[in-house]
Fold this protein.
Amino acid sequence: MANLYMISFGEIALKGENRPFFERILIQRIKNALSGFENVCVRKSHGRIYCYVDGPKEEVIGRLRKVFGIVAISPAHSCALDMDSIKTAALSAIKEMDYNGKTFKVETRRPNKSFPMKSPEVSREVGAHILRNLKGITVDVHHPDIEVDVEIREKGFVYCERISGPGGLPLGCNGKAVLLLSGGIDSPVAGYMIMKRGVEIEPVYFHSFPFTSDRAKEKVIDLCRVLAGYSGRMRLHVVNFTDVLKELATKGTDELLTILMRRMMVRISQEIAGKVGAKAMVTGESIGQVASQTMEALTATNEVAKIPVFRPLIGFDKVEIMDLAKKIGTYDISIEPYADCCTVFVPEHPRTRPELEEVRAAEEKFDIEGLVRKGLEDIEVVEVV
Amino acid sequence: MREIYLDNSATTRVSDRVAQIVYHVMTQQYGNPSSLHRKGIEAEKIMRKARETIAHALGVKPSEVYFTSGGTESNNLAIKGTAYSMRRMGNHLITTSVEHPSVLDTFKQLEKEGFCVTYLGVNKEGFIELDELQKALRKDTILVSIMYVNNEVGSIQPVEEAADHIHRNKNTIFHVDAVQALGKIPLVPALKGIDMLSISGHKIYGPKGIGALFVRENVKLYPIFNGGGQERGIRSGTENVPGIAGFGAAVEDAMNSLFEWRRTMEELKNRLCRRILEEIPDTVLNGPRGDYSRALEKNSLSSDAEGFSASINVHDAAPHILNISFLGVRGEILLHSLESHGIYVSTGSACSSNKSGKSHVLSAMGKTAEEIDGAIRFSLSPFLTLEDIDYTVEILKKEVAEIRKFVRR
């Protein structure tokens, strides 16, 4: 038999006339997240989503907790609209909880006014029924351990739990962006934060074999797999960056190499964004974290961007980023020790405060457009699910 | 793409003959040697034959050969097994600072458990000094463990001479990790003075997951695995009969071809070493000098006369391992560029290169940070050709020059 999960969504209820659009996307995302389970039925009614699905509760909730837009998930029981059925449903619901030695109260809402009893009466009767049938549980109407919620709508619904979801907005309702993804700790977190705002992400990874090993690439694919847990899938663009990097590294640009490299990455990512219909770029930069993330350096990389660059971690401390990475499940992968190209090609004394003028002058030695084309010529697309 | 596999000290390709034998045993002769019926007896016979082959190759009795899951288990069993069973006789253990992690880390653990361990140093070529061993030996020394052939640089330790020193002490057990020596150099002569010897199947074109420990019959070992009492109670667990059959066949092949293989590999190694040192600037040989004195005269190492004189000793270099540093080149980057041409090598040893740490062997030999950083281990097999070696050298010349353009010193 399919179990019922009542899903509440916060912010999208505020969105006025766009609301049906957001709700439709959210329902689609929920269906995607539950694909593979039997008897999935998702429908909305009165600001709630009712989701029927057959499958182990833990796993269903685990998947729903990764659907952006969901504020809370309540495993619920539905029943016919008569007191006996409501009482039976309430008793089954509370029996699923670890109730022994706990306190409870019953809270009833009655949007369906055709039901003959008023909310407080329903609560009283259901509470009495629970007390009669269960040992080891007492009533506390002020600070109960367990709140038994009864809702009287076109049917009766009873639930005891509110499991928090990730919040945010359903994925895809805010378009698409490319994510400059390295193997490090920050960029996957940045991607997560932008995804949470409803933006679909296509990651771009710059691979510089043999300067970085194929294991570094596998690591990035593993990171994409974690992010795909939130989106269903990820389309990773692996840019073979070796030739570009070599070209940049040969022409005596030592101290500015990191900046020039990042400007190339932005240019190439921007072209990819154009091709896949993405409207912005996302990076994991945070002010002052490394030499290439001082305000001057950010200005220099930003200069070549013609579409917005979102930096959701800009004001975060490393520790805060690490905590988030642990929460979303990317941390353990990020700390695997395979060097990415940034660490191999770091100049001994990188310039921390490059002047725009000197960066531009340094680039005059190169055929920038040619290099961008070179980068775009050799891209491997990896579909990660 | 052409494939040139120069990582035979990490593991080897299983020979077709061995693979067929393993497959046949897996699918046809799949009985458990402990079973009383015909299938069990059949399996037992296969095992007996392999045990005899291996005993013969070592010049020991079949009853002194115990099958294990490989080199790591053999080393653990030998070292812990002796330390625990002989604790009453003494508390002192000796090993070297260039052992495989399965030896070194076992000793580190015993140290934490209260044993006192002496770690012998090595000279610039990776050899232990017998004087140091002699000084380290004490009345309460119960175990000495020395590897036969070093897996990273190929130095062959003077185990025969070491045995003479060790056995002046009546109660001291001598264990030798011969994982890299089996099938490369003759083991029989040295075994007179050795009490325990570890060997492994997958380094000699046999399957992974099978190895053996020779234990002289008067040595009492404390078992690590308890269970059904297989391998005379020393190593419980249903025997890996297909692996054992494959191991036996691989040892048989290695013994039949030992001298031929050795000559072939020496020729290959000579060519590879000489050409690299002569044709690629800023390269340094790590390990025994062996036959390479001519090449060395032309190279940066020729000034290093002190280390050189020490090499004209009886100690030898293993025929299959060549370790060279390409200064200014990060080993891992060179490894990956060779990989893109189908050439497979290793930085340090496979086991330690998984960790981000520096090679403990090269450090113990007093190599500089730059030398350690740029070290590549080539490990050969007799199935390679001189043409493979020449191709490798050509690619090396190109790739080393290419990398040196970009990587800052």
Remarks:
- Residues 16-253 of chain B form a domain with the Aspartate Aminotransferase; domain 2 fold (CATH 3.40.640.10).
